[in-house]
Amino acid sequence: MKKNKKIKCINCNKEFDIMLDTKPFCSKRCSYIDLNNWLDEKYSIQINEENYEKDM
Ligand SMILES: [Zn+2]
To answer: How far is the CA of 4 from the centre of ligand 1 (A)?
Structure first.
């Protein structure tokens, strides 16, 4: 029996075949976007902490 399971991309919520190498993303582009978002968050958190110190 062949069952093509589909899962949702954790970046854009688009459904794609679970057999793809790019999972949990629908495409390589989505995996790069997610990585960039993650890095951006990390940097923005550091910047926010600096701003808090100045405000105090
Ligand atoms: Zn995607």
So the answer is: 18
